[in-house]
Amino acid sequence: MTTESPTLEEPHLTIQPPPSAFFLRRRFLRSFGPAAVAAIALLVVLLVSGNVVVPFEPTLELSGKMGSKADFFEDPQVQEILMRHHIRVHVTRTGSRDTAVHDLDKFDFALLSGEPAAGLVRGARANVFVGAVRQPFTSPIVLATFRRYAEALEANGIATAVHGTTPLYYSLDMEKFVAKIKNKATWDSLGIADVPSNTAHARNSNQVLAQTSNVCDSNSGATYLTLVAYLENARRVPVPDPPRGGAPAGPVTLNDAHALGNKIKPLLNAQGYASADLSESYWNLAEGDKPIVVIYEHQYLARQLEVKAATGHPDTDRVLLYPKDNILTKPQFVPLNSTAEKLGDLITFDPELQRRAMELGFGVATPPVSNKSQHLYDFLAQQGVPTPETADNDSRTPLPALPVLEEMIKTAGDC
Fold first, then answer.
1. Which of 37, 138, 173, 276 has a CA that sits 20 to 30 A from residue 219's CA?
2. Measured between alpha carbons, how far is 76 from 61 in angstroms, rounded to an integer?
């Protein structure tokens, strides 16, 4: 008998396709697909526009030492523009002359407020790298005051208002002004309480003078000293002593400069303690505290632009006195190593940074040979702020040789 084995069928195996990645599943795409596409598109736009720099490109960290020109690098908009160029700047504030005469080894660059301080840096680093020096903008020293003091000076023939019924700018006869300081004239003697627009103001028995920053530390103080020295030296540039006949060649002697420094010293000492930041005190303290202070033009114009933007009109109680004989200070960017040269080029030539410099009150150095910045004055007019162009003039007080200036500073300031 034959027994048949049951026939077994082959099992049917079904091979399922591997599951899709989670980001390709239909539910995920329906929920998050549009958002992902939008995010990618936004990233592309930011990359193309240059608004995304980190972490796609390393940021260059630079440290700089400077005085009042730190206003530029501490400005948030300047910082934003520099970050788009992959640069972040760390600032150490100190007076320009203090910057020049103290150690710079730990810094990448120095931004000096004038040529004399820059000359000190170049001289001290004659055997150390100094890159291409740039002059990114200009800003003359000015005497900032209040309207009733300017009107008192005008009533005494010392200042002249520049156009308009409520002028912001006055031309100052420095020789007459210095004569009042030497004669120890007081504001009361000039009729400060009798000027037309200030009959309700209190009198001021303080001496007529201009408050400066410490001449040993700051470029503005040293520049004011240079201007006074020029006038006290019969409008002649102080020079080294003439060599004696038959004397052997050697270092110049500076007895004349020393004597001139001693002559100027009482005019500076009359102001008492020299404050560090006169611009801030000028805008924030009562007018009788420091009736006239020596600051930079950009410090005044920047604040007036802020006031105009906030209130619709400039502050007409605060005005500027422009010396007829003036010194145009040219800030000097001195790279102390090769990595800082890119920054010097940027702040000098980049259109965005140059425009922001004007918004901060600086005259941009365009064209490079110009002493005045027509670009700045045009910009002020566009913003509705009167321009100081007609208050300033082309009379420039020549700077003495650096050894002469240093001798006068050290003598007058007891540095």
1. 173
2. 16
Q: Which two tokens stand for residue 364?
A: 């941009």
**What's the pLDDT tens digit per position in 260-315?**
999 999 988 888 777 767 888 898 877 767 899 999 999 999 999 999 999 999 99
* DSSP string over 327-361: -----EEEESSGGGHHHHHHHHH-HHHHHHHHHTT
Q: Return the H-helix or E-strand segment holding 311.
A: helix 297-311
Closest CA to 252 of 372, 357, 116, 404: 404
- φ, ψ for residue 159 (rounded to 5)? -130, 155
- Give the pLDDT band of residue 68 (cuts 50, 70, 90): confident
Measured distance CA(112)–CA(8) in Å, rounded? 99
Q: How many CB atoms lie within 10 A of CB 404?
A: 24
At 53 the pLDDT is 46
Class level of CATH domain 60-138+330-382: alpha beta
